[in-house]
Amino acid sequence: MFTFFIKRKKRKLLDEFKARRHAEDDLLTPEKRQAFDALIAEFAASDPKELKSAAAIAEEKMLRIVKPYSWIRNLLDLLIVVGAVAFGIRGLFFQPFKIPTGSMQPTLYGIHFMESTPLGKNLPGFLNYALFSARRARLEVKDSGEVKFLKYNNSLFADNVTFSIGGKVYALPGAPQKVMEYSGLEEGLPCRAGEVKTDGFLSLGDHLFVERFSIYLKEPQRGEVMIFTTDDLTVGGEPLSASSGFYYVKRLVALPGDTVRLKENQLYVKPAGREAFVKIRELAPRTEKLYSGKGGYQGHLSTMGDYRLFGAEEDYIVPPDHYFMLGDNSAFSLDSRFFGAVPRRNLVGRSWFIFWPFSRRWGSTDRLPPLDFPTGSPVRGTFPVMYKQ
User: Fold this and answer.
1) Spatial distance between the Cα atoms of 104 and 332, rounded to a whole number of angstroms
2) I need a labelling partner for 21 at 20 to 30 A (CA). Which of 81, 163, 246, 351 fits?
3) Domain of 159?
4) What residues have CB less than 8 Å from 181, skipping those under 6 apart?
5) Confidence (pTM)
């Protein structure tokens, strides 16, 4: 009986050695493979009564053969597994996404100016960036003079605009258009010594996870914030992707077969099969805040720009297998009013969770009420109330 257990243990060890030989095969030289095979044969021929010493000798010899390669193998295995899991999660479930523009403000923010971070203006610069993706944007004029723009500096990690006033050179973060928006600076503008032209922060905007799986289990609903690609979408005959990027984020407001109407800054929808138009906020309660007139929400404007699809008195029927998308920042949004309804095949997923920065919006998206400040009127391409968040 004792001999039976020894033989069984020897067979198990032999199988383990063979499995190790197979696992290391692609990393061994022909000479190392021959040595490994000889080692296995030597262990197989050993006396079962000397199993303990034979196993120890075989293990020692085996380590001499594979030790130079084992760490490489383990590292490659780890990288492959981690990479497969990461890309699998990204491709099938949660894809990270950076909000590119301000078209969905104040629900989701692109690069934007803030009057202050949640922890105030005295936090060290590296913490402002780590917590709130924010860079200091303060300009106090030293000497009187006119603004003269010098250069736009754009690197992998940051960008800024340099300019001079009264012979002194200054820098503010952001692209030229963004700097002019939040500071009010323009070429030739006279400035007085002691003026504070801007005092706040420029944030890189919201970074979120897009949930990609549920759109295959549950049909998109009116009022949901969706991410989609710009494939085959055009504005004025030009591909949208060429000028505005490959991904867009907007709010879905109408389903296939719906008829939409914009009138007096109100969106009306007549669902497929019904006779009467209904306000979108009655069909999709989560759009109610868009009509609050607070925090930057403006409703759905019907008098901005030269609409490609329809004017204030015209209706539009959403084609089959398409969805009508509008930006919450209606005054400054390039959306289905211009490029038409979005095909079902373009949908990527639902906006799910803002993971950076750690602002009031951190967490599940589209859950917050508007700030209790009047939206007001636009100034220099934005609504100043949005600087408060």
Assistant:
1) 9
2) 81
3) 115-203
4) 113, 380, 381, 382
5) 0.75
Residues 69 and 152 in one domain: no
Instruction: Look at residue 68 and tell me whether its pLDDT is greater than 70.
Output: no
C-alpha torsion angle, residues 114, 356, 300, 270 (rounded to 10):
-170
- Is residue 184 left, alpha or beta, with left meaning phi > 0 and alpha meaning psi from -120 to 50? left
The answer to whether 280 and 222 are in contact (CB under 8 A) is: yes
Residues 37 and 125 in one domain: no
Segment 152-160 shows an average pLDDT of 85
What whole-number distance in Å separates Cα of residue 192 and Cα of residue 146?
9
What region, left, alpha or beta, does residue 286 occupy, with left being phi > 0 and alpha being psi -120 to 50 degrees? alpha
Rounded (10°) angle between helices 51-92 and 30-44? 130
Of 271, 264, 275, residue with least CA distance to 301: 264
Q: Are 258 and 336 in contact (CB under 8 A)?
A: no
- Token pair 């006119």: residue: 146
What whole-number distance in Å separates Cα of residue 376 and Cα of residue 246? Answer: 32
The answer as to whether 102 is a domain residue is no
As a whole number of angstroms, the distance between CA 180 and CA 53 comes to 80
Residue 354 amino acid letter: I
The Cα–Cα gap between 150 and 51 comes to 81
Contact status, residue 295 vs residue 373, Cβ threshold 8 Å: yes
Predicted local confidence at residue 7, as pLDDT:
66
Residues 264 and 345 grouped into a single domain: yes
CB 14 within 8 Å of CB 40: yes
